[in-house]
Structures are given as C-alpha cells and as structure tokens.
Design goal:
Blueprint (H helix, E strand, L loop, with lengths): L1 H6 L6 H32 L3 H6 L7 H29 L3 E6 L4 E4 L1 H6 L11 H8 L2 E3 L4 E3 L5 E9 L8 E8 L1 H35 L1
C-alpha cells in the first residue's frame, strides 16, 4: 500500500484488499473443484458399462459421490491386478510379461526357475536374461533349449493398445522335452529296425544273384 502511494499516488485500504482476497479464494477453489469434477465425470464415461455401473458412488453431494466412485475404481483395479497376478503364478506354463521395450515386467515361479536370479525390480532386458541363463532360441521352430537340454515351445501374444507406448508382449514357454525325447527314441528305433531289415534283404538279394 505504501509503495502505491509513493509511486502512483494511489491508496487501497488494507481491509478492502483482504476482503477481495477472502472472497476470491472460495471462487478460485470452486473453479478448481468444478474442473476436477468435470474431469472425473469425463474419465468415468469412458469406462465399460459394467464397470461404470458397479463403481457408482454414494454420498450426500456430487463431490462425495465422485470420491466414493474413485475409491471403488481403485479397489477394483487393485483386485483385478491381484487376480491377474495369481492367474499367472498358478499357470501350468512358464509365463513372462514384457513391455514394448522387451523389459521383463512380470514372471511366474516356473519362469523364475528357468531364469534364476532374474529380478523384475531391476527392469532386466529379456534378451540379456536369455544370454545370462545360457538358453538358445530357435526363431524358426519357436523353441527354446536350456543348458540342461530341456526344450520349450515358445508362444507369443502381442498386447497392442491405442498408444504403442503402453503395448507389450506375453511369452509362454511350454515344456515339450518329453515329446522331443520320444521323437528321438522313435527315430532311433526306426533307424535300427530299418538297418536290421536291410541286412537280410541284402543277403537274400546276394544269394539270388549267385544262383542266377
């Protein structure tokens, strides 16, 4: 106030200035609250109908209703994530979830046993994890072979979204080691049988040629 008097010769009563500030603060807060409320309503309108209906909040005013709705949505997302994680953990195959950069985001215990020491918190790269574990990938046959000789069929599924930054990939590894061993045994047996059958046939052909 003193600076205004000295510079511009203008005097504003302190009481009036404080009154304007006190009056402006509730209006500013109300504007912000209205903007937040409109944003929440807009985001809620993009939810699937079933989720939007189940997340309808109760309350004595609009703000309380929206707060309860957001609380319900957060709880629903948390429960869904926990359910998804439990499904991945109990899956019969080794499952690895990657982001769009190939970084491991989640893996179940079966995958952890194939890649020991793989810590998701360190945001490991899946290709580097394969090199460290000493596994080999056959891109043509979609198979992975471990150092112990076990073979896994590799199945991939893209997680495509509207925003490519949020995409990713799910890698499932199914143990087909017994199938490959049986195939090798069957091939060896057929080769053995064909050799045993070829020997007497050659002998018979040789004898018949002598007689002729």
């Amino acid at each position: 106030g003193v600076a205004l008097v000295l510079i511009a010769g203008l005097w504003i009563p302190v009481g009036s200035a404080l009154f304007v500030l006190i009056l402006a603060y509730p209006l500013w807060s109300w504007r912000r609250l209205t903007a937040v409320s409109n944003y929440l309503e807009k985001e809620a309108s993009t939810l699937p109908p079933r989720l939007a209906d189940s997340s309808a909040g109760d309350g004595f005013d609009v703000v309380a209703q929206q707060v309860n709705r957001m609380r319900g949505l957060v709880r629903h997302v948390s429960d869904s994530f926990a359910f998804l994680q439990s499904v991945i953990e109990v899956a019969p195959d080794a499952i690895i979830v990657l982001d769009n950069k190939g970084t491991v985001q989640m893996l179940n215990p079966k995958a952890q046993s194939l890649f020991p020491g793989l810590d998701v918190k360190l945001e490991p790269d899946f290709r580097e994890a394969r090199l460290v574990a000493g596994v080999t990938f056959d891109e043509t046959a979609d198979e992975m072979t471990t150092q112990s000789g076990d073979t896994y069929l590799v199945a991939r599924a893209r997680l495509d979204k509207q925003n490519i930054e949020e995409g990713g990939e799910i890698v499932a590894l199914r143990d087909i080691s017994q199938i490959r061993r049986r195939e090798a045994e069957r091939s060896e047996m057929l080769e053995f049988l064909s050799h045993d059958m070829r020997t007497p046939q050659v002998a018979i052909i040789g004898l018949s040629n002598r007689e002729n």
